[in-house]
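Hello,

I think I submitted the zinc ion job twice by accident. Can you confirm which output corresponds to this input? Input:
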Amino acid sequence: MLVLGIESTCDDTCCAIVKDGDQILSNVISSQIEIHQEFGGVVPEIASRHHIEMMLPVIETACHQANIVLEDVDLIAVANEPGLLGSLLMGLHAAKGLALSLQKPFIGVNHIEAHLYAAIMSHPQKIQFPCLGVVLSGGHTAILLVKEIGKYQMIGHTIDDAIGEAFDKVAKMIDLPYPGGPQIEKMAQGIDPKHLFKAGQIKDSPFHFSFSGLKTAVLYAIQKDEISDKREIAAAFQEAAFQDVVKKTMRAAKEYGCQQIILGGGVTNSQYLRQLFDKQAPQLTCFWPGNNLSLDNAAMIAGLGYHKFKSSQGGDMFALEARPSGFMRI
Ligand code: KG4
Ligand code: ZN
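Support: Only one job matched these inputs. Its output is below.
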C-alpha cells in the first residue's frame, strides 16, 4: 500500500511516500528556518504563507523521488494535530484536495504520536509492547506507556515549558540563533559540564517535567555574571535538562516493567542525549528515530497513517478538522 504523507504542523513543509508503513520511498522536507531566524522564532502567519508556496512543489518532488505518479497512491495521510492552526490548515486542505481529486481515502494523524512511531518504523529490531514512549519535541515533553500503536497511557508530562522550547529560549539568552537545540549541542561539545543547574521536580508526581525554573536559573546566572563563558552555560544547561530526562525515563521503565523505550521528537536528534542513555541506562533498549526522522517529517505521518487506516473504517471524513492543541487523546 502506497501512502502519501503530508506534514505542515509548524515551519517545515513535508511530503513523503511510504510503502506498507515502513519502506520510505521519499521523504522531502522544505525547511523555513532561514526565514524565521531573523525573528528569533517561528512567526505563524509567515509559516502558513510559505506552506502555501511550497506545498505543491514538495508533493511533486516526493512523487518524483519515489518514482511514482500521484495516481499510484492508495491513501493520503496528513498531520491534523497538534500544531499552529494556520500551518495545520494548509496541510489538511492540500490532503483533502488531493484525496477528492484522486478519489482516494484520507486519514488524519496525530503529529506527536507520529514522532513516537518514527522510532519504530526505522528500527531493525521488532518492538515488544507494552513499551515506554518518550516524547521530546519543541512543543511537547511526555512519558507514556505504549500498549500498542494507537493505545497510550500518559505517565508524565511537562507542567510548563517543553524541553525543546527551553533549549530555544536558553539559546536566545546566549545569542545563538533559532532553533537553539542543535546550536547548544554544538557549543557544549568538548566542555566538561558543571552541575550548576537542576530541572524541576514535582512533589508526588515523579514523572512530570518542569523546565521553566531551570530556564530562569540560567537567566539569573547570566545576569549576575556567575558564569561568563557561554560554552559552560550551554554545557551545564544541556546536562541538567538531559539528566532529568534520563533519570525519569529510567525510573518509569522500572516502575512499569519496560525494557524497550521508543523516543521521538526533534530533541532526540541530539547525539549527546543518545550517548547519555547509552552510558547511564545500558540495560534499556532505546529505539531512536533514523536519519531525517527525528525532526518534523512526513515519512512518520505516512507510516502511522498506514496503521491507523488499517484499523479504521475506510479513513476519515472530509469534515475532519485541524486541532491546534490536540495532544494525544488517550
Ligand atoms: O519535533 P520538532 O522538530 O518540532 C516540534 O514538533 O516541536 O522539534 C523541534 C525542537 C526545537 O525546539 C529544537 O531546538 C529541538 O527540537 N532540537 C534539539 C536538538 N535538535 C533539535 N534540542 C536539543 N538538542 C538538539 N541537538
Ligand atoms: Zn514535531
